[in-house]
Known about the structure:
The complex is a heterodimer of chains A (541) and B (43).
Chain A: H1 7-30, H2 35-40, H3 47-58, H4 61-74, H5 79-108, H6 113-120, H7 124-157, H8 163-211, H9 215-225, H10 233-236, H11 254-270, H12 275-282, H13 287-323, H14 327-333, H15 341-349, H16 356-399, H17 408-428, H18 434-458, H19 464-484, H20 495-500, H21 516-540
Chain B: H1 9-31
Amino acid sequence: MTEGVDLTIFIAMTAVFIVITLLLGWYGYKNTANNQEFLLGRNKTGPVIIALSYGATFLSASAVIGFGGQSAVHGMTLLWLCFLNLFLGLIVAFLVFGGRTRRIGRRLGASTFADFLGKVYKSKGIRVFTAALILVMMPIYAAAVLKGGVNSLAVITGLTEYYNYILIGLSLIVAVYVVYGGIIAVMYNDAFQAAIMFIGMAVILIVTYCYFGGVTAGNSALENLWDASAFDLKSLGVAEGFNGWTSVADFGTKEWMTVVTTFLMGVGIGALTQPQLVVRYMSAKSDRDLNKSLIIGSIFMLVIVGSAYTVGSLTNVYFIDNYGLTSYQYITSIGLGTDFIIPEYILEIFKSVTFGDLFISLFLLSLICASISTISALMHTIGVAGGYDLYSVYRNRKYKAKGDSQSINLNRLFIVVFMILVVVYCYLMPKDIIAKATSVFMGITAAALLPAYFHSLYSKKPSRVAAIASIAVGSISYLFCALFINAGTCVFLPICQAITGSNVLFPGTAIAALDPLIIALPLSIIAMIIVLLCKRNDNEM
Amino acid sequence: MSFFGLTDPWIIAAYVGCILCVVFCIWYSLKTRNDPEEEEEDD
């Protein structure tokens, strides 16, 4: 492991960063007069803030180091995820879902994703289920993001013995500004953090290609690296079907299944139903502002994700040139996981560059920004799912009241309690978990909620029964596939192992690499269509 | 065919697709920048 970063520069930059972050938190606090503003802001957020906030929330440390590390292992096929992030996560999300969500949400007075679905379908059950899904699944995703950021930070700075302090310090900063500043502080901080991420990732891409002698020279070096007879696939961390870092795996093989169904489809489609992103549409002033934000949003996403996946793949050239080992072989040889490939590469390559320490500090700050911009949005979403959605339903039921809870303090209490839970999860989670946890969270929300969400936007008379059927089938089938079919996700809760003695039902086959979403989402859609058809027939009779 | 040193058409297509998405976003934003801001009704 390379020596850590120059701490003087890093600490100075971090101190300035923390001061600005807390000032923006204070700005949010001063501009949050009531619970509505805590949840959605003042409904006049401009396109720049929306674009950067959406991008920074969407792209966490998971995109940079989690999936960046995966691109070092599986190659440039991950660039298809960059395309899906742009196409589904931005274009389809804003043009197909964003405008309608904003308009319908405003008309119904909805303030959260769960509230939106509950009000469209006039169903407390759907609202409670969505809020509960957030409360159960989102802390796992938040913990994966936090753990990824802290791990890299501790390793790169050489401060591994201070891991606990870094973890708690970051959590405290997030908790303070989310608790006090609400969504306004979250979105302004997101925008500030996005700017840092943008500069950091652009510098990394430029320095990488300069190091390899240009774009063509770098890509050619990576292309020429692959010699099927020279590598044992297992030692590379890939499966049968892998064709090198600049080629897509053979169709239908285990490698193809893993990369395409888990990383590409799972995350790409899942981005459409992220509750923390839906709120961004609802806080926009107008559809025109949503459209305007596409320019900055798309450039931001292309630079962050495109850089991470391109650089991730190219790290193989660097590690083979310097150590005779691929990125995966090198990182495992020093006892670390794939999440450390990008940080380790940056630490090494910038040591030979003028102002290298400055750039390493900038990358570290980008990493902190990527982590906390996502975590802050997640914690805000978790807090309001408990303090606003669940409590509103509970209060109305118990006291026969009407309307929604207006208690900011209850939202704040939920944020604090769940922040503590997220920190606890960080200690319980295994390493190399970031990409997997992201995929699971996005997968289950998409399988359970995507058909119901789409139906709520495009149906003249949204059917509650059809939505409930779709949500039930999507959730149950996703959980079944995650626990009994997919070898990657069954590790979260080894029920299949306990029942059958085998970790999954079809071990060693390509099906074991199939992402649960690929089965669960079509089933969820089919369930909705069947119910809608049955209802139509009933009406016609 | 080589595209900046890359030869796999799927990988090249991924890069081209990303660029096209950004171009589309810029085009669409500029096209709708003068749209009226009135609220549309959604049933």
